[in-house]
Known about the structure:
heterotrimer; B: mainly alpha; globular; C: alpha+beta; 6-stranded antiparallel sheet; elongated
Amino acid sequence: MSTALAASLPAARVPRAGASPWLFWGRALVLPYLLVFVVFVLYPVGYGLWLARHPASYVKLFDDPIFFRTAINTMVFLVVAINLKMAIALLLSGFFVTSRWWIKILSLLFILPWAVPSIPTILSVRFMLNPEWGVINASLFRWFGIEGPNWLNDPTLALSFSMLMHIWKSLPFWTLILVAGRLAIPGEQYEAASVDGASNWQKFRFITWPAMKTLYLTSTILSMIWTLGDFNSVYLLTGGGPADLTHVLATLGIRYLRLDQVDLAMASIVVALPLVLPLVYFMMKRLSK
Amino acid sequence: MKPAGASQRSLPPKGDEAGPGAARRSAMSRVTWRAVSTEAKLLLIGIPLFLWTIIPVYHLFLFAISPRDSATSGRLWPKHPTLDNFAVVFGQKHFYLDHFWLQLGNSVLIAVAVAAITLFVATTAAFAISRLKVPGGRTVMNLALFTYFIPAAFLAVPMYKTMGNYGLLNNQWALILAMVTIASPYCIWVLKQASDKLPWELDEAARIDGATPLQLFRLVYLPLMLPSLVAVGTYALLLAWNEYLFAFLLLSNDKSLTLSVALGSFLSADDSPWELLMATGFIYALPPAAIYYAFKRYMVGGLTAGAVKS
Amino acid sequence: MASLSFRNVEKRFGNVEVIHGIGFDIADGEFTVLVGPSGCGKSTLLRMLAGLEEISGGTIAIDGTVVNDIESKDRDIAMVFQSYALYPHMTVAENMGFSLRLRKADPKHTAERVDHAAKILNLGPYLQRYPRELSGGQRQRVAMGRAIVRDPKVFLFDEPLSNLDAKLRVAMRAEIKALHQRLKTTTVYVTHDQVEAMTMADRIVVMQDGRIEQIGTPLELYDRPANLFVAQFIGSPSMNVVHGAVRREGDVAWVEAEGGVRWPLPAGSAVASGETVAYGIRPGDLGVGASARPVEAEVIVVEPTGAETELLVQAGPAQIVVVVHGRTNVRPGEVVDLAVDTGAVHLFDPSSGATLRA
């Protein structure tokens, strides 16, 4: 298209909207997804919010000491697990772009935690942590004569292991993303910096980090949203225990549900929305450009 | 991920020597202090990383091939490795495993159904939004994105109640449709991005050649989108196969359970035959790993492009 | 084969009108070229004819039938795109036969038509290849083959040679022209290259800013441009234009340009003395050497191209291009006398650009 005209065009070339079969099929083909959305997203969300409409639910919720504990656990999980995970991912992204034959093989293996379903692996770790016959305590006793603690019976240890589990599972994905970010940086910049006499740290500070900053931030935000929804890492490892002390938001809702306290379940989710929605909004602005 | 091999220009890792130079030097066996310290630093990261990655998986495997008594001995390799556990699982010879094959079949069926339906829903939507430029397409895309970002666990409780209202509880369709709902948004996003890259002239040429919208979809669009369709279909397949929470909530009858829920239910008993559990888990973990490695090329491009725009 | 007519055709994108009331006719079998600078609206006009753009106002008719509300596929036209728009996942044969396949034609019939088109375009050995395996010129031919198989009433070409290198372009120009002579299908061809227009067209439509500047045969446009724009657009190198006032002394008239340079006007010139005009003279109508009323100029650059020599000279403050046949001995820095073929002088109104006198 000629440039002057193209400048006045509102969007890319549009097929004649007036031509009816094109409009008809456009609408018809988008219908399946819209149907799915209305029936399985809109209605459930609406219904859920409706279930959470009584202020009394929230009073009950805040009165419940488990909720308070859960909120703290969730914040700890978010702040510690995510930052640790992203920092490690950043480090590893640099590691994985180094060319060694064994690093290449390692990178193939590294994907495993993410590719493999979490149930078997989490259960595997759970058994490793079993105080009587789990591998960890058995080895500790066999080699050092120490009697290892009851790992999952201590709330702090239990929560820590849940976080480690979460990191184990999701680290490959984020590392991959950051590797993609690294590979997008032109190699010539590093070469020019070498000629200018920059140290490795300076190269990171003045080339790598500025280029990766935005990606790192976006990844962290997205990771926060998804970590809030990580049910498996806590439930399958600790079940929320001991004594409901390691629940996070994702598992708490289900707990209330199973106790038939649906209003509390929904209320606990609604309470998280002021945290989640701004993050979601942020991500949507970034992506729907 | 093709990090090390793919980069022609290998970037210096944090805190380390320039890549290509070091490789050449070590190939020439010039042992300099720098070369040694570089390798040492890399190994310092690599070895713990390897152990960290492999231990839970190896432990799983270890248990699966160990007889009951010796699994917990803390050995690195069982004294008497056995495939008996697998035999028991396949033979459904334990009451926990009564319905193993049925449950495995359920997992397969549900995963395939989810993949197929998601492909249908996502492909038609992406085509309508990207190529037919249906009015309101942008809004639909945003709705999809929104659903993608909301953590699935938040949707779980409302979805459970809703399925109850629809009368679908304990019906496998509940799980299938729920997973389609969760998988579609991302698939639409990826497909739309890929569609946007197709040149407009192809659609115009086809229209002048006389194509109706459906002919354009069938004869021009689908063949050209094949790689993306594979990536997206695989994603939906694996998402459904790996799902625990929704399956756990929406299905309760032993006969309709998927393998993931069945595995989880082992936990409730005190005397669970954990070596059988690990064997079952291993079987359950194989298909996704195999599929992932088989389709690695498609997955990586699609998934990283979609998740975060750098 | 069919005639085309455009009546008051307008195009608006939002509030911006980009084509303003265009009207003209194309006879059955004519090869018409729409030419103009980027942004003049030629492609938009073509796309409206093709049915790829809505017609905001006016009518377009093919063979007497108004096609404004008729779908592209029912207009019986075929189009060759600038980027060829070949379906990458289909072989050459499948690409060419696609339109017939869409109409569920008998496969044997399709094969016959494809073979026929392939023979005309020398594509026989490539029928089972994929577009990615072909060169630019071959892909271009496949695109044309696809159009030929359609056997439409009108062929539309949208800058088809822009993506080819210079040599290939020259070869393809001849091929397209030969094809037209053979098939005699009405053809509308869009290009920004006036050389293509001049060599291929039966008639040329020169456009600028969504309006028609002039319609005519190539030589009509060359010899009798309607305005300054057409005069400078058609012909390469461009026509030289200087501004000045007409002066008379008895029978002799000239245009006095800046620096006191006197550009001769022919004897019978009727333009009033004192009027400011734009004086145009093509490089080929200037010579170096003795003449009745020479114009003094200093040679700046000498560019021999083999058969001709292009000279850039300075007359007063104006830079003038002169093209002479064969070789010349002049050197840069020399002062020479330019001989003007007064019969070939064009005068234009300096504000409106309209031709005053050919």
